[in-house]
Amino acid sequence: MQPLKRNLLSVALASATLMLANSAYAQSADQNQTQAEDIDEIKVVGIRRSIEASTETKRESTSIVEAISAEDIGKLPDTSIADSLARLPGLTAQRFGGRPQEINIRGFAGDFSTTTLNGREQVSLGNNRGVEFDQYPSELVSQVLVYKTPDAQLVGQGLSGTVDLKTVRPLAFGKRAFAANVRGDMNKVGDEKENGYRYSFSYIDQFADNTVGIALGYAHLNNPGQAKQFGDTWGYDGGGLFGGGKLYDLENDNERDGLMGVLEFRPNENYHTVLDIFYSQFDREEQKRGMEFAGAFGGTVQPGSTPANTSFTNINPVIRNDFNATYDDLFAIGWKHELRLSEHWTATADIGYSDAKRKERILETYAGVDPALARDTLNVVFDPDGFFRHDFGYDYGDPNILRLGDAGGWGQDGYIKDFEVNDSLSSFRLDFERSFDDGWFSSLEFGANLTDRTKSRASNEAFLDLSACLGGVSPACTDGFSQPIPTDLRTNSAFNAYGVGSIYGYDALRAYQTLYTRRANANGDISNKNWEVNEQVTTAYVQANINTEIGSIPVKGNIGFQAVSVDQSSRGSETFQGGGNGRPLEAGAAYTDFLPSLNLSFDLPWDQVVRVGAGRQVARPRMDDLRANNNVSIGVGLAENPLTGAPNVIDPATGQLTRFWMRDGGNPKLKPWEANAYDVSYEKYFGGSKAYVSLAYFYKDLRTYIYREQGIFDINDTSITPADYPVNPLLVPPSNLGGFTRPVNGEGGTIKGFEFAVSVPLDVLWEPLLGFGIQANYSDTKSSIQPLGPDFPDEPLPGLSKYISNITAYYERFGFSARVSQRHRSAFVGEVQGFGGDRTRRTFEGETVTDVQLGYTFQSGPLENLGILLQVNNLENEPFRSSFNGNSAQPREYFEYGRTYLFGVNYRF
């Protein structure tokens, strides 16, 4: 169905373009003027106001940008910033927990873009650089700009683009305003419901003859969520039979508080200062209940089984009750001063600080069928929606057949991971601008920006053992390693998904606090999660702003360059086969990048604009790739020699399999991703900035990229000594050389694509359609970049969907408003939290998400300016799913998040 959807959207976009063109040329100049005058008399508010403000920003920019503007104070068009961003041309979002969170720009994952708040680079709460946009309440943001082309004065820009979040400026707003929004929401998955709410307040005012301005905003979110998950863990055997899977019910409590404050002072035309503060606290707790089990890879396949209908015996599920939580704090402050030195000179100084802290817990507890009972039977039947239906012999909601303990034979009764992420960034910027009264250049800007960023991650992990079962048989343990589940821990056991009616639920956190003992786990994988990266970046720039004419054609734009000096370092450890915390390591590198940029905008007759952009863009390496950690081990029983690729054999001298040194780690000396970027855009505007159609093409030629490479190292060049490994000569590799896997810089690759967009209030075409409008865009992107290196030429770039489309139809008049939005992206490689708490890549299938919004605002009387709002998000209950090798008959993961219904009121005066 995807090609059909793409074709239909292309036809719709082309038709809209032709209609616009025909309408423009079919009317006389007098008729156009009359209609424009009539339309200008209409007070533009709400959805259309937001669209027209965004279009005006796009038209007036000297770079190629996309923009989102708030419909009103405290009111962006969508419930989240990520939702709004995902509707822009060339942008899309990856969903986490049912919410869009990470933004992908032009086929690149979130780590390749940079996010700023009021022009200052922001830190992130995840393991790497990608900002989680659900940390920023939409009610506190007045505008978002996405820069697609580089601009010399834009410090901290990314390879794919730069997202600048802006809070309101009270003096520019120009009047007193107060707004309050309250919404209740309900998330529904099947017959199960979760209710939540959100509210916000915003206040803007001016004092002292409009020389002092203040803006305050507060937003609270209480948003429980839920999901059902089918996951295939073991894949499929050679005959395509179901290897085994996971079934989970997830219940989430999400609570966020956001605060924004702006103090602005302009005593005269020569001095202007702004102090702005932003704070967000976001706490998320998840109860995860379910089971995991082997099928063909552990059970016994019964005769007559087929891939679509398989029967097993000897099934032994592990019942899981887990508790996952993240507690986030995000803070940013900035103070900017502008001083007019003379008629032509202006100086600006800006100091900023951004800080983020995350505490995360992943807690697992296990149970299984009483060992005194026989193992279970299972029949699985493939459902064309993308999962398997299960029919077990036992009722896993019955606590009488279950016992706590190591049901899977994993050597533990549970496991706990506690992570902590800290990220802080200090910045200072000094700029000067010299304006000119005539000539090609309107002004010359130059300056420097200094940032000092430190990000660290720490991991504390342990096995969990049942306290009552330690040291031999206890009365609480029926067989020496398991015990009944205490009845006072019981929670909801209903499951009702994928053919399973119930799975026993208990309070995992309380169980951990009362029933378990920690047993330390020290190994190389854990020490690899403990690292610190520091970056000191100095950016000097000069930019000439162009405002001239070539013949009769006005030309705007800029030309300039940045010199970016980076001094990076990392601290970590080097371990041997999990031997404790290892020995400390510290390494780093220093380098300088020169980043030229050019942007030109040509204003052609009949409201046509042609833009060209060229420049060099960079994305600094992922934080976990920069870590100094190394883990050394001895490889034995490998399928092949890691040095030569030859089959592994028995050493005739020792009778042992040949052993090899192996090493895996990060690389603190990495250089960034770097590309030469070229852009061209054609835009046709109608009715001033009321409507437009645009066609853009971009091409990025990579000079460097980063992938994991296997090379050779010498054990004598490491900190590992004979005291760390066995002295038995039969166990020591005969050669000092070994295979080393680490991230390195590669060369080459391109990414290119085109973006088509149209925004039309339909009264531009035909006046009786006043109030109706359409926004739509379509993107087609191709890449030859090899993110896993030359040995994997077909691996796609993370975040890249070849096809992206968005369409929004809206109506707004006489106080009534309605909007239907649909966004689609084709299959892509995303990152999810994998085993051990690290990010892992996963190929997800394409998805289409539809949202609906209805509203009414009272136009007069005692309820004037009171608005009522009804929304349904994910109207068609679109799942988030993946499969093995793109084979829909072999599903890998299937998340069902359900629909979310919102009802609220808005009031402003």
UniProtKB/TrEMBL annotation:
<feature type="signal peptide">
    <location>
        <begin position="1"/>
        <end position="26"/>
    </location>
</feature>
<dbReference type="InterPro" id="IPR036942">
    <property type="entry name" value="Beta-barrel_TonB_sf"/>
</dbReference>
<feature type="domain" description="TonB-dependent receptor-like beta-barrel">
    <location>
        <begin position="388"/>
        <end position="875"/>
    </location>
</feature>
<keyword id="KW-0732">Signal</keyword>
<protein>
    <submittedName>
        <fullName>TonB-dependent receptor</fullName>
    </submittedName>
</protein>
<feature type="domain" description="TonB-dependent receptor plug">
    <location>
        <begin position="58"/>
        <end position="161"/>
    </location>
</feature>
<comment type="similarity">
    <text>Belongs to the TonB-dependent receptor family.</text>
</comment>
<dbReference type="InterPro" id="IPR012910">
    <property type="entry name" value="Plug_dom"/>
</dbReference>
<dbReference type="Pfam" id="PF07715">
    <property type="entry name" value="Plug"/>
</dbReference>
<dbReference type="InterPro" id="IPR010104">
    <property type="entry name" value="TonB_rcpt_bac"/>
</dbReference>
<keyword id="KW-0998">Cell outer membrane</keyword>
<keyword id="KW-0798">TonB box</keyword>
<keyword id="KW-0675">Receptor</keyword>
<dbReference type="InterPro" id="IPR000531">
    <property type="entry name" value="Beta-barrel_TonB"/>
</dbReference>
<dbReference type="InterPro" id="IPR037066">
    <property type="entry name" value="Plug_dom_sf"/>
</dbReference>
<dbReference type="Pfam" id="PF00593">
    <property type="entry name" value="TonB_dep_Rec_b-barrel"/>
</dbReference>
<keyword id="KW-0472">Membrane</keyword>
